[in-house]
């Protein structure tokens, strides 16, 4: 089945700087890659997703890039703000199932 | 809008007691429904999913069961809770495996 790995597990950035989280996946047939943001005590919230027919997608300060050859995709957050502090999960669809990474704790330091 | 209702938000139960968590969705018909569990500081573990009424697939053998008595209702149950059942339980819905997955607000279960 699909195996998704996320790096780094924890990331601290200064407010205003950029944050990048990278995920790798194992199933070359995977074609859908969402990113979720989870704040403490809340359910994960879908923030951006990308399908395998495009290489990049942007939504305001958030972007996702996909490299199908290398089987990795990354979340980019620019001009980070304290409210960006959360756990971020990546996922990939393989074998008709959504496989999640283990999450990445992002801390934005004011 | 397509809303997921999940309750209660928090629950404290003694070991050996039964459990029933309910999830209902609005604004969509024939959704795929899911139960996930998240241990403290850990990732998301898929417990059950359902593609239709009465159709339940279990991902891991455990002390829990799920039922889907109505199209928009998904129930997670246990006859006797264990300490290891503690965690954050999330209901989710999608239109299919390649479709967007949306989560409810979750139930924090503490088994003492």
Summarize the structure.
Chain A is built from no helices and eleven strands.
Mind explaining what this structure looks like?
- The complex is a heterodimer of chains A (110) and B (112).
- Chain A is an all-beta fold.
- Chain A contains no helices and 11 strands.
- Chain A starts with a strand and ends with a strand.
- The mean pLDDT of chain A is 93.
- By secondary structure, chain B is mainly beta.
- Helices cover 0% and strands 55% of the residues of chain B.
- Chain B contains no helices and 11 strands.
- In chain B, strands 2, 4, 5, 6, 9, 10 and 11 form a 7-stranded mixed β-sheet that branches. In chain B, strands 1-3-8-7 form a 4-stranded antiparallel β-sheet, with no helix packed on it.
- The termini of chain B are far apart.
- In chain B, 34% of the residues are buried.
- Classes of the chains: A mainly beta (110), B mainly beta (112).
- Chain A binds chain B through residues 31-32, 34, 36, 41-46, 49, 89, 91, 93, 96-98, 100-103, and chain B through 6, 42-44, 46, 90, 94, 97-98, 100-106, 108.
Looking at this protein, list some descriptive labels.
heterodimer, A: 110 residues, mainly beta, six-stranded mixed beta sheet, five-stranded antiparallel beta sheet, 59% strand, B: 112 residues, seven-stranded mixed beta sheet, four-stranded antiparallel beta sheet, globular
pLDDT < 50 stretches of chain A: none
Q: In which range does the helix fraction of chain B lie? A: under 10%
Low-confidence stretches of chain B: none
Multimerization status: heterodimer
What is the arithmetic mean of pLDDT of chain A? Answer: 93
Give the terminus-to-terminus CA distance of chain A. Answer: 40 Å
Cα radius of gyration of chain A in angstroms: 13 Å
Global morphology of chain B: globular
Largest sheet of chain B: 7 strands, mixed
Decide which structural class fits the backbone of chain B.
mainly beta
Question: What is the SS-derived class of chain A?
Answer: mainly beta
Helices of chain B, by number, come to 0
